[in-house]
Amino acid sequence: MTKVTQSASQIKWLPWIAGIAFFMQTLDATIINTAIPSLATSLHQSPFDMQLTIISYTLTVAILIPVSGWLADKFGTRVIFLWAVGLFTIGSLACGLSTTLVQLVIARVLQGVGGAMMVPVARLALLRCYPRKDFVRVLNLATMPGLVGPVVGPLLGGLLVTYASWHWIFLINIPVGIIGIWIAKRYMPNFTSTASHFDWLGFILFGLSLVFILGGIELFGSGSISLLLPILTLLIGVLLLFGYGLHASKKEQPLIPLSLFKTRTFNVGIRGNILSRLGTGAIPYLVPLMLQVGMGMSALYAGCMMVPLAIGALLGKSLVEKVLHRFGYRSTLVLVTVVIGVITAAFALVSNQLSLWFAVPLLFGLGVVRATQFTSMNTITLADLNDQNASAGNSALAVTQLLAISLGLAVCACILKLFNSYGSGNAMVHFHQTFITLGALTVFSALTFLSLKSVDGDNLISK
C-alpha cells in the first residue's frame, strides 16, 4: 500500500464522509418502497411489475461489489469514491427524469454502479486510515447515519409522494451527493495499493449467470408468454453458474474462491442467507404494496406503517448479543427463522381498517426477529474463516446478502403475479396467499440451520 499521510482534518472528517455514503445507500433502499404504486401509475405500468426498479439496483450493486476494492487499490480511494458518489447522483437525476419503466430501470442500473463502490470504498478508507484498536468505534460512528435511513426512508417517501411527486424520492439524493463530493474532494485521503490480478472471466461468468437466473424467475411470473422462454433463460443462467464453478476450481485467485465453502459454518451461513430471504427479503416491498393497492391507503399512511419495522430492527440489534449468549447460534437461528415465517404468514389476517392495526405489532416484532436473524447469520458465516480467506469471505457474504434480496424480491413478485393471473378473488386474497406462501418458505428454510452444531459460534460470544 502507498503511504499516505493524513491531516488532522482528514482524520476528523473521514467518518462523516463514510456516513454520507451509508445514509445515501440505506435511504435509497427504503424510500422507494412506498412510492411503487405512484411510480406504476405515472409510468402506465402494473404495480406488480415495478419490482424491476429495485432488483435492477440491488443486482447491479451485488455484481460490481467485487470490483470496487480492486479499483480503489489501483486508482485510489478518493478518486473512486468521488466517481461513485458522482455516478449515484447522476443516476438519481436520471431516475427523477424518467418517463418510462425502461428508462427508470437503466437509470437505476447507473445508480447501482455508483452504489456498488460508495460504501465498500468508504469502509476501505476507514480501515486504512485508523489503527485497528479504533476501527470498530469509528466504523460504528460512520454507520450511524445509515441506521437513520431505514427509519426515515418509508416515512419520507410517503410524504414526498403524497405532497410532491414520486420524482423527489430520487431528486432528494442530488444535494446530499453534491455535499458528499465537496467534502470528499477536500478531506478524503487517496489510499492506493498494489492491485492484484482481477478475475475478469470469473466476473463475467458469475454476473451473467445471476442476470439470467433472476430474469428467468421474472419471466415465470408473466402469464403472457410460453413457459419455454423462462425455462430456457433459467437453464442458461444455471449453465453459466456451473461454468463459473469450473473456472474457479482451476484458477489460483478466483472472484469467489470455492474453497470457502469447505468451511461448514460459512457454507451454512451463505445457504441460510439465500434460503431464508426468499420468504422475507420482499416484506418491505410487499407490505406497502398491499396497503396501497389492496386496501387503498395513501403512500404517507403506508410509509408510517413501515416505521415500526425499522424501530424493531434497531431494538433487535441491541438485543442480539444477549440472545446469542443465552441460546447459542444454532437454537437462535432455528427459532427466529420459524418465528419470522409465522409472522409473515400472519399478515394474511390483515384485511380491513379494524385489523389494520394488527399489522403494527406484527411489523415491530418482525423487525426485532429479522435483525436478530441477520446479525446471527452474518457473524456465524465469518466465524471460522482464517486470516487468509477472511477478506474473500467477507466480500462473498456482502454479495450474497444483496443477491438474496434480489432473489427474494423476484420470487415474491413471481408468486404474487401468478396468484393475480390465475387465482380467483380480489387483490387482497392474492396478497394473503402470497404472504402464506412466503411464510411457509421461511419456516422450511429453518431446516438449513440444523446443520450447525450447538458449539458453533462459541468463539464469538463470551459465556
Task: Characterize the structure shown.
With 463 residues, the chain is mainly alpha-helical. It is globular and about 60 Å long. It is built from 17 helices and no strands.
Distance linking N and C termini: 39 Å
Count of DSSP strands = 0
H/I helix tally: 17
Structural class: mainly alpha
Mean pLDDT: 85
Concise structural overview:
This protein is mainly alpha-helical and 463 residues long.
Secondary structure elements and their pairing?
Blueprint: H1 8-31, H2 36-42, H3 52-75, H4 77-96, H5 101-129, H6 132-163, H7 168-171, H8 173-187, H9 200-220, H10 228-250, H11 264-280, H12 283-294, H13 299-346, H14 353-356, H15 359-382, H16 390-422, H17 427-445
Features:
globular, mainly alpha, 463 residues
